[in-house]
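Dig into what follows:

_____
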Amino acid sequence: MKKLLLSTTISTLLFSLPVAALAQDYSKYGIDEDVPGKCSFAATDAKDYSGRTLNIITHAVPVMGEPTALHASQFEELTGAKVNVVHVPFGDLFQRIMIPFQAKQNAYDVLFYGSLWVGDFSPYLEPVPAEYQNTASMKAVTANYKDVATWGKTMVQFPVDGDRHYLKYRTDIFDNPEMQKKFKAETGRDLSVPQTWEEYGEIATVFNGWDWDGDGEKNYGSAEVVKRDDLMFSAFISRVSAYAKHPDVKGGFFFDLETMEPLINTPGFVRGLEMFVKAQKYMPPGGNNFGLGDEIFSFGGGQTLFSYSWDDAYIQAMQKDSRIRNKVAAAPLPGSNEVWNRKTGKWDKFATPNRAPYITWGWTSAVSKMSENKDMAFDYLCFFSNEANTLHDLQIGRFGVNPYRTTHFDPTFWTDKLGWNTKTASTYVKTLSGMDDSKNRVFDLRVPGVGQFMSSMAAGVSEALAGQKTPQEALDGVAEEWRQIVNRIGKERVKKAYATVVALEDNLR
């Protein structure tokens, strides 16, 4: 939106008008109103990047790819820059970023990718300048997502998203007296939000395979991410964390930090996989091959009672045209009354279920060290994540932008501006903000070669889900592969990186 210079006479006339009369209206960009700040629409509009080109690599449309392109076109119009956006499927994204890094090719200025890859990418990323770290919007980023953006003591990633897994459920069923009566008749206990994975399975089984919401279509118990190469590893970690992350045992969840011996085949992980295998009985037809998109539209479209991955399914359910709008609520992931203690080699019993929130990988962004347009690149990321854009993006389930600032946890935003009912908004805000306060958290592995570790895990879990191996056999195979991966990459290199993850989990930072 670069304008021609006005004549001196017209400029003098304009300066004599009230400030409000000069304010630019940016509503055509889909925002309610501009929010003043370093990277607001007005501040970005004042920049002139004419004749310069910004190259961006991001995920395929829609998740993260769509908002990347939307804000790139806005940035292009506002600043006069030429912005090229390359969209890449998730399975290819790591290599499409890493190969140019290794070849020392300046392919992209701005990178959008999964934050768990920071262990591989960190040597090639430009630290976030202090002027951006000191903005009000950055200071409002929660501690968890500042940690996710940091490698060692340096912020090398630019926060644009806050991801975590939590339970989503249908309130129109849980609050329905007839459904409560039916459940008690079948199980002998009252219908309540599941506190353990065992309770989750029991409830999902009762509400599987019949039309419990009266729309003429069968409903099912649970929509889960099960497809091997479509983020299933994250769903598995959510299911095992309560059994394997002991609140009183420090020093590693995936590995024993001292020895770097894999813990993936210990009894807590095996118990979680056993429950995952059983869960296939209460999934929709074809649900044992659901990817993230399938889970979003299955729960978000009203097909299932439960789901438990990222925010997207919840936001999808709350779209203005959703038939289950204001019929959903959020809760922490189910826990377990038994937790494996790897120090004593025994199961410890807990009267109150152990919960271990999974701060799962989320989308992040960064600027390449090789970029010759670092100023423009950071301005784009700051503009992408400005308050007006973020509030817009939070409302669109398919965008993949989820709450990551303290300001996003005000329930009145969701009720007053978006029309959510009180229960839907309050449970959502309480659940998400509560995860930031937990002292027994699980973070992503975030070490060099993390893609190899997660692919190995997903392959082993898939073997158990398909009945090709028992859960113990499958995870024994994964543990052996993990030992080989550690040896290939270098034990000390992996250990040094893993120590940064353990410091987050053990609250040492």
Notes: The two ends are 44 Å apart (CA to CA).
